[in-house]
Amino acid sequence: MGLSRERIVWAAIQIANADGLESMSMRHVANVLGVKVMSLYNYIDGKDELIDLMVEAVFSEGGDSDPRPGRGWRAELEAAARWEWALYSSYPWVLEVIATVQPPLVPSLLARFERGLGTFDGLGLDPVTTHRIYLGVSGIAQGLALLRVSEIASERRGGGISLSQWRAVKVPAVLEELGTDRYPRQAALRNSPEVISDLEEIFEFSLQRLLDGIARFLESETGQSTFPSRF
To answer: Which residue of 15, 116, 190, 214 shows the fewest CB atoms closer than 10 Å?
Structure first.
């Protein structure tokens, strides 16, 4: 198979998935593809452009960028947040690239953001408000994804434990050693199985509570109940 921009991009993605973005370099990609590093520059200007193309590739996997008619704002936001959450689990390096004040403004990322803003079309909200709401929902996924990405990095290094394992074993042991009377509220959680949750459960709980709050806000802004739109 001949060299192509697409092959270069997906080789870089595989490296970043396996070893982290810091391990991805033009030379590493060339070695994986079995070509000379200078041959890559016939297709890509350098590492910065390659990272942009990697983001474009994985965001393009999201499919249709237009909201589904009649789906409702809540279902749209749920779908968007879950898609973003799944993205960071599948491609953990992406969080490092886009959760910044200067993310790569590639077409597929912009299309997904445009879809998110379009969720509120027809509700009479101003553009600034819709922008804030959508970023808040995306922030739930990105914030908890920091823990997920940390889990993945720990697993990659070997010998790491999950958040639920940490909460079930390490935290109670430390509280016992330091004295549970010093941290009574945390100690009270030791025998609660609900607190030993994995990140999927925490993400879903947090997402639903945020959406409940948005529903109340929209109701106050429009004077109409928006709760039925989740079903």
So the answer is: 190
